[in-house]
Every structure is written in C-alpha cells, then in structure tokens.
Amino acid sequence: MKIYKHRKLHGLKRDAITWAALPDDVPLSVILNTNMFCSAPADVIHFVGSDDRMTREWMAEPNDKGWKFANSFVFKNRVATYERRLSTGVVGVDIRLINHRNGWLPGCDDYMTALHAWRALESEWLSTGLPLLSTPRATGIALLWENLPRGVEFPALPDDLARLIRANSPQHRIQAMRRYAVDMDAEPFPSPADCVQYDGRWMYASLCGLDRLPIGEPRRAEGFTPYVPGIYDVTIRIPETWSHIGLIPMLEDTGVGFARAWKYPSEPGRIFRTWAFEPELTLALKKVKDFGLPAWEIVDFHDGYKFEKGRPLMTWAHKLIEMRERLQAIEANCLATAVDVDAHMLSEAGHFKRFDFAAAAIRQILNHSIGALHKNEYQRETFVSEGNYRKWRRENPHLAGGDDVLKVEGGYMVPAFVADTSPLSIFMPHWSSTLYSLARARVAEWALLCEPETLVKIHGDALYSTVAQPKLDKLDDSETLGRPRRK
User: Fold this and answer.
1) Is residue 134 in some structural domain?
2) Domain end residue (candidates: 36, 66, 97)
3) Which among 49, 79, 97 is the end of a domain?
C-alpha cells in the first residue's frame, strides 16, 4: 500500500515557455517548426485567444507535416503534445490555450494581459521554492507534497474501497427545482437575468481547513455517528411532513438509454437506499433541526467505512489562500492609486487586470489539485466505429450522451482514460469526496434558509432564486471564503 507523507521535492524541471497570440491564418505546423529551429526551443507554447479559433482541424494539421501527437489528446481542453523525429533524436513541444476555462488564466484572452499576469504569478510563486509546472494540477500537487503535516503518514485506500468511493461521489449538485420539470403543468424556467444568484467564495479553499477530512486506515462501521468521516450504505426515510429540497444524493436511471444521474429525493415519506457521505448525513439527521425542520431517519444501516478525522490539507490550502489574497491586494492598491499602469495592462473598461488573473490562477491550482486527488488518471480521446458504438454505450453508461462524445466520420470520438503514473501523483479520493460532500451540504444549508417556492436551481456552489434572500445576504461579510455572495 502506498503511503503519502511530507517530503521535499528536488530537481523539478522548469519548462522553457514561449507565448503566442492565436493567429488567423498561420498553420500550427509552421509555428512548431519555427520553434524547433530556434536557438533555444521552448518546451511549451502558451497560446492566447478564442476557443473558436483553436479548432480541431488546426490542432490536427501538424500530423500531416512531419509531427504527430505524442499521446491521444482531449480537444475540449485545447492542450496537446507533439513530437517529431529528427536525425539527432526526437523533439517535442506542448501547446496549450492558456486562457481556456481549465487552463492557467481562464477568460484572459488579451495577449499582453496574459503575459503580465503570468509574470505576476511567477513572482508570487517564487516563495514556494518550486517551479510552475505544466498544469495547475501538477503544480498544486507538487506543493502539497511539501505541505503535508510533518511526521504523519497517510495510507492510500485499498483499491476496492477507492472504486466504491469514486462510484458514489458526485462533485457538484446540479438540480432544477421540480416545478420547472418538463411537462404540461411546468412553470416556464426563468432566465438567469430574472434570477438572483448567490455563490460561494472559493468554496473548496474554505473547506480544506475543517477538522472533518478522513485520515488513517478505514475501519468497518457498525452504525453512523455524526461528524465521524466516512461513507455509509443506508436506507433513509424522509419525514412525512417534509416540504423542502432533498438533502442526500442517489443514483437513479434517467430512462434515456443507459444513462443514470444523481438525484436528490425530497418526496415526503419516501424510503430509499444509497451510499452517502458523513457531511450530508449529518445535515439530514442532525443539523436540519437547526432550521426548524424535521430530521430524516436511517431505517436500516447496511454497511459503511469510517475514519479518524484531521486537517491534512490545511497548511497547503492556507499558503494558496495567502498568495491569492496578496495578488488581490496588489490589484486593489493599483486600482486605488493608478500607479504603474500602462495601456497594455488595462481592459477596455480601464481596470487593472493582471493581478486579478494571476489570483485566478492560484484558484485554479487549488481546485484542480483537489480533482487530481479524486482521479489517478488522465482523460484522453479514442475513436469508436459506428458498429462498436452501441457496445461502448452499454459499457460506459456514465459517459454516453455527454459533451465529450463527438460524432465524426465513420464513428465517434469518445473519452478514454489512462493511469497517472507520475511519481508526484497523490490518489486520495476519500479526501476529495468529503470536500465535495461538505460543499454540497453547505449549499443545501443555504437553500434551507430560503422559502422553497423561491428556489429555481442549484448549480455547484451557486444557488438561483426568484427573489433576494435576506438570510443569505446576512451571512455575507464580503471577505470570508465560503460565504454566499450575491452576484
């Protein structure tokens, strides 16, 4: 069994990076060739520009000009690794759209702003003694190794328990309220402009320091105890007088093909069975009374695993939070004093943006690292022919019908996954799953403060309602992470 513990990292390679605005009419092969014959070729090319201009055809074009993909790529992320064999050996280069929503600087599509934001990020990151690696995910995990609590060992999960936890761990709650269901009697779904939106300020960062994460070896549980980390196979009864949102997720068939989806049962008196995590069970069975609502009930306990509790991510998260706050403070000071501003650093509205985007990159590092704890694999693409696609759908019902499936000539491009064999990887899905459950429970608590008929939908850490919610406004102090913010 793999054991994770604090260790210093040495010899991490800092990539040589060059920058380019996405061109209108220059083939990617020309850019790769130009880089290859430079006196100091870059390992990575950071492109800046619109997703729409970085087409699949543009990214595939070098395959006909002497280059090839070093591995199967995922077009939706606008990232690829190319290699070319020369008489002197194989040369390779990564390209990535730096302003992609899953990239370093999401939304920053101005070349000079992106360049200055990266320099601000590099300057702040120097304090860690580590380089910025190829992705926010890799960079954050490297920092985590050096900030795990000293003198403590964190054992990896047994494979069967890791699979069980991942299979029963949705990340975000995405739910439209029942009265907007698609049927003859449904109310028209309000447009976002007609809703009042609340979301959590960097929710995951606010939860990393809680003394509720599972640590140590898993132990078989004989029952559920509130605030004891774990996952539990239980049959739940909803109170007969219940009249609010559902609190505990379960997988249900959608009735469309082989697809299943996460639902949140809320029908009064309903009895259902599911694997559930401690935070949501604690909310449903105990904390719900704080909202003047009846407690749910476990009518049968079938199985479960529990852990000791601790704060394995606290120091790591606090360092990232402090970096982000420093970058935000610099931006606020520059806006207030208008010092050191030039035309390249200003948005059309005249706002100073480089430190804002650099701060957003720190957020990407933490959030993507938590995702890396959940999955010891990378997503790739593979081709499935028309004749084999039905079989693939049967074998992958959780992927069928998703945005990652693309119809192409002769078949489909579909998601495929390869193991993350990097020595830097940390696979602790019980940490990430507990954070996901804590986040879902917190948003559910916000919803319980609202009159149910005012709720429109829950989408991740965002809540939409038809009216402003004074109780949520009261919780917001404009500074504390994890508090609801009206947008």
Assistant:
1) no
2) 97
3) 97
Sign of CA dihedral 96, 99, 105, 106: negative
Count the domains in the chain.
Answer: 2
Q: Dump the DSSP string for 256-321.
A: STT-EEEE----TT-EEEEEEEHHHHHHHHTGGGGGT-PPPEEEEEEEEEEEEEE-TTHHHHHHHH
Segment (H or E) for 230:
strand 230-237
Rounded CA gap, 427 and 161, in Å? 12
Distance (Å, whole) CA 292 – CA 310: 30
Say which residue the tokens 């992320």 belong to: 77
Domain that holds residue 61: 1-97
Burial (CB count within 10 angstroms: exposed 0-12, middle 13-18, buried 19+), residue 229: buried
Q: Which of 126, 110, 149, 111 is nearest to 326 (CA)?
A: 126
* Beta strands per DSSP E along 36-162: 44-48, 68-69, 79-86, 89-97, 154-155
Name the pairing type of β-strands 260-263 and 377-385: unpaired
50 in a domain, yes or no? yes
Question: Is 221 within a domain?
Answer: no
Amino acid at 287: K
Query: Which CA distances in Å does 179 have to 35, 176, 182, 252, 467?
Result: 57, 8, 9, 19, 16
Q: Report if residue 401 sits inside a domain.
A: yes
Residue with tokens 């995990």: 141
Distances (CA, A) of 63 to 28, 68, 76, 223, 253: 10, 5, 18, 57, 41
Alpha carbon separation from 100 to 105, 116, 155, 440 (Å, rounded):
7, 17, 35, 26
On whether the CB atoms of residues 284 and 272 are closer than 8 A, the answer is no
Give the tens place of pLDDT for each residue, 228-248: 999 999 999 999 999 999 999
Measure the CA–CA gap between 356 and 335, rounded to whole angstroms. Answer: 11
Q: How confident is the model at residue 185 (pLDDT cuts 50, 70, 90)?
A: low
Per-residue pLDDT tens digits for 59-87:
999 999 999 999 878 888 999 999 999 88
